[in-house]
Amino acid sequence: MRLLYSEQNMLSKDLLLKAYRLMMTARAMADTYDANRQVCKYVHSTSRGHEAIQLATGFLLQPCDYVSPYYRDESIMLGMGYRPYELMLQLLAKGDDPFTGGRAYYNHPNIRRDNFPKIIHQSSATGMQVVPTTGVAQGIQYIEDQKLINYPTPPVVVCSLGDGSVTEGEVSEAFQFAVLHQLPVIYLVQDNDWGISVSSDEARTMDAYEYAAGFKGLERVRVNGSDFADSYKTMEYTINWVRKERKPILVHAKVPLLGHHTSGVRKEWYRTNEDLDKHYLDDPGPKLRKLLLSKGISESQLDEIEEQEKAFVQSEFEAAVAAKDPDPSTVSDHVFAPNPVTEERGTRTPQGRDKVVMVDAALHAVEEILQDYPEALFYGQDVGRRLGGVFREAATLADKFGDSRVFNTAIQEAYIIGSTVGMSAVGLKPIVEVQFADYIYPGINQLVTEISKSCYLSCGKFPVSCIVRVPIGAYGGGGPYHSGSVESTLATIKGIKIAYPSNAADIKGLMKAAFLDPNPVIMLEHKGLYWSKVPGTDDAKMVEPDRDYVLPFGKGAVALEANQEAIDNGESICIITYGMGVYWAKNAAKQYPGQVEVIDVRTIFPLDEELIYSTVKKHGKVIVLTEEQLRNSFCEALAGRIAQNCFQQLDAPVQTIGALDLPAVPMNMGLEAEMLPNADKVAQKIGWLLNY
C-alpha cells in the first residue's frame, strides 16, 4: 500500500507542539530513571527513539479501540493521555499502579477506563501478545457478524511489537489467521535493528515489511517512524482504512534505539559508538524541533517547553516515589475471578430417560450452551461441518449453528488457545478444542504466559473465560502421539482450572459449570470413556442430566462405597483417582466386596481435599491411582499432601499406582498394556495393602 499526501494534509502547529511536548516528557522520564538507578531498581525499558510513531498512534486511537503496547511503548501511553505519574507507579511497583497493582514491570499495561482505548493484559514474552490481540480482532469481527453489538464507530485493534519478535512462530500463526479471516487489526512493527544484543543482520534475512509479503491478503506499508509528521499521516490513513475496510495491515516503522535495551542490559555493553551515533542522527526530537522552527515557533518557546517538562516529570517522579507499596496481604488476590457456580443444582438424573455415552452428553452440553448464549462459539481442529470432531464430539453443531459459530482452524494450537484471551476480553465465551492431549504443548506458551496470568496481573480486569477441550488418555493402540496424559503438566500452571470427568452426567454438569465460570478451564476428556468401548467402562454411560444441571468444580464424588462393617473392623481401604482410574479401581474392588471405597476427584484443580482427607482418615489406608507416568506426577504430589495432612490416622504408607516411567505410550497393544495400570494391577496392590 502506497500512501500519498497533499498540502491539505499538513499538520497543525498545535498538534506538532503537543507531540514535541510529549517527546520532551518521554526524554525527561528516561533521563530521570537513569539518574535514579537505585530508586528505579526494577527492570524497565523506555521509548527513546520510538517516540514519534508511538505518539502518533496514541493520538489517533479512540475509546472504542483496543491496543496492545509492548514493553517499550510508554510514548503510546503518553499519547493516549496517561500521566507520567501513573506510568511511574508501575515503574516503582507501587500499590496504586492502575495496571497491575505493583505486580508487573514498567509499561506492561492493562486497562478498562472510560474514554480511553482498552488494553488487555500485556506480558514480557516478545511476540506473545500477537495471538491474544488478534483474538480481540477476531472477537470484534464475530460481534459485528452476529450483530451482538451495534458499534457506533467500528473498533480498530492495534498490536505493537518489535521487529525482532516477528521471527517468533506464534506471530506467523496470528498473521495467518488474520489474513485468512480478514480481521480489523493493525500490526505496528517498530524496527530499531536490535533484539537485545542481536543485530538485525544476524537474526533475520528480511524485515517485517518483506516478511508480510508472504501473507496473501495482509496489506503493508512502510513509514519513517522517527518523523512525527510522516508517522501521524501514515497512522491516520491506516487506522481510517481499517476502520472502514475491516481488513488487516502491517505497518513497518523504522526507528532508532536511543536508550538501553533495559535498565539491566545497558547499551554501552554491546553497542559501538559508531552505531549509537548513527541512531542519534534519527532522534525524533531534533527532527520535530527543526520542523517547528520552520513553522515560526521560536527557539525560546521550545526551550521553555523542554524545561517545563523536566520540572513536571521531576514532580511526578517525586510523587510516585512517595506513593505507598502494595499491601502484602493482597498478594493472593485476583488469581481467579469470582465464580457464580458454587453449588450443584438442577436435575442430575431425570426420570424415564435412557443412558447416554459420555461423548453425547458433552456434545449436548455444548449444543445447549450455543442455543442459550449467543456469545458462545466453538472452534478448533476438525470440529467443523465436514467431520464434527475426530471423535464426533462436535457432530452436527456446525449444521445447526452455522460456520461462523462452529468452525475449523488450521493446525495452530497456540492460536486456538491464545486467541481466547482476546475473545474473552470483548465479552465472548469461546469453547475451543485441541485434537489430542499430546498436541497441547505448542499451546502451553499461551496457556502459561497469557491465559493463566491475565486475571492476576490485571487485578481482575481481564479474567479469561474459556473452555479448552482436550481428548486425553490411552486405549486400543493409539500410539505414542495420541495416548498421552498431561494433567501433571497442566496442574503446575497456576491460574487455570482443570476438570477430568469420568462419566456422562459429570461431563455435562462440569461443561455447563465451566462455561458459566469467568475463568479458564481445561476439560480433559478420556477417549476410552467417550463411547465406553473399553471393557469394564459401561458405568461411564449415565442418564443425561437436564439442561439446567451444573456441577461445581472442586466437589469430588464417592464412586464406590465400602461397607461400614469393614470400616469398623479396620478391613477397608480407599482409592483416590479420576478418569479411567475410576473403572480400574471399581473393577479391582470386585475382588474385595465391601472393603474398597473409591473417590472420583472429578476436578484436578480445584481439588476436593476435604473429601479426600476425610475419606483417608476414615479408612487409614489409601492408594492414589493415575494413568500418568508415576514419577513426579500429580498423583505423587497428592500422595505427599495426604501423608502430611493425614499422618496420624494412617495405618500404612500411602501407596501410588501409575504408568511406567516411559517417554511415551508404545503402539503395540501388548506393550501398551504392560505400561499402563489395569484392574488386575490395582487388585494386587489392594490385597497387599489390606494385609499390611
Structure in words:
The protein is α/β, with parallel strands linked by helices and about 700 residues long. The strands form five sheets. A seven-stranded mixed sheet has the order 10-9-11-12-14-13-19, sandwiched between helices. α1 packs across α2, α1 crosses α3 and α5 packs parallel to α6. The longest helix has 24 residues.
Please state the oligomeric state of the protein chains shown. Answer: single chain
Structural class, from helix and strand content? alpha/beta
Number of strands: 21
- The termini sit apart by 78 Å
Give the helix proportion (percent range). 25-40%
Q: What's the story with the biggest beta sheet?
A: 7 strands, mixed
Strand order of the largest sheet: 10-9-11-12-14-13-19
Mean pLDDT: 95
User: Which segments are poorly predicted (pLDDT under 50) over 5 or more consecutive residues?
Assistant: none
Proportion in β-strands:
5-15%
The number of helical runs is: 25
Shape, principal axes of CA atoms: elongated
Cα radius of gyration in angstroms: 29 Å
Write the layout of secondary structure elements.
Layout: H1 13-35, H2 51-60, E1 66-68, H3 74-80, H4 84-91, H5 130-146, E2 157-162, H6 169-181, E3 185-191, E4 194-195, E5 198-199, H7 200-203, H8 208-212, E6 219-224, H9 228-245, E7 249-254, H10 273-280, H11 284-294, H12 299-322, E8 355-356, H13 358-372, E9 376-380, H14 397-401, E10 406-408, H15 413-425, E11 429-433, H16 441-457, E12 466-472, H17 487-491, E13 497-499, H18 504-516, E14 520-526, H19 527-530, E15 542-543, E16 557-560, H20 564-568, E17 573-577, H21 581-589, E18 596-600, E19 603-605, H22 609-619, E20 622-629, H23 634-645, E21 655-659, H24 669-675, H25 679-690
Parallel strand pairs: 1-2, 2-3, 3-7, 6-7, 9-10, 9-11, 11-12, 12-14, 13-14, 17-18, 17-20, 20-21
Antiparallel strand pairs: 4-5, 8-15, 13-19, 16-18
